[in-house]
Amino acid sequence: MSLVKLQDIGKDYQTGDNIISPLIDLNLEINDNDRLIIYGKSGSGKTTLLNILSTLEIPSNGSMIFADKLVDSLSDKELSNLRLNDIGVVFQSHHLLEEFSLHENIILPGSITHNLDKDFANFLIEKLKISNRKDHLPDQLSGGERQRCAIARALINRPKLLVMDEPTGDLDRNTSDEVMELIDDIFNEIDISVVIATHDENLKFKPNSKYLLEQGKLNLIQG
Q1: What is the CATH number of the domain that holds 110?
Q2: pTM above 0.85?
Q3: What total number of domains does the chain contain?
Q4: R_g over Cα of the chain
Q5: Which residue segment(s) compose the domain that 189 sits in?
Q6: What is the pLDDT of residues 126-184, one digit of tens each?
Q7: At what angle do helices 143-155 and 118-127 cross, to 10 degrees?
Q8: Secondary structure of 31-70 in HEC code, one letter for each residue
Q9: Separation of alpha carbons 86 and 109, rounded Å
């Protein structure tokens, strides 16, 4: 069943007298429990595409349908609720709150919705092997631990879609492989669609589909 449809999506940015268009008439369909990887060079528009998927940016043209809702027609409040409840985002930089512990960072979205599932929070913390770091502040964590905290926070409200932008970009190969194995284990136990944008062709992740983003369009990679 289709979860997300991007139809003829374009995005333009004005830079001085020039217009840059990282996305041009782009189409993509994401089904329930899909696992997608989007490859592309730096500057190819991967982050722009993920920002549109997570409704953090509005396309210049085209439309996005999320769970049968036309995103363009949603009010600001409806968009905020969609982001909070149905879309999890893992950014290139972790965006952890420095004054909050690892545990507090993870449960924050659930606290905002007043719908925190403590058992699920503990499940994520155990699965990601960070239970012994629950009371540590972000500056006391390693890069891999901060990333695992960001992943747990993105999953805490059981979103329908998880969007990950270069999830292991700052990690060495061994740590990258360890993090991806841990989250793959979680994905096998929960119903969620996942879109990962990366330049790392050796990322330890098994997608249903792989795409290359270049010249503003997505091309399906066969095999």
Answers
A1: 3.40.50.300
A2: yes
A3: 1
A4: 17
A5: 2-221
A6: 999 999 999 999 999 998 999 999 999 999 999 999 999 998 877 888 988 988 898 88
A7: 150
A8: ECCCEEEEECCCCCCHHHHHHHHCCCCCCCEEEEEECCEE
A9: 12
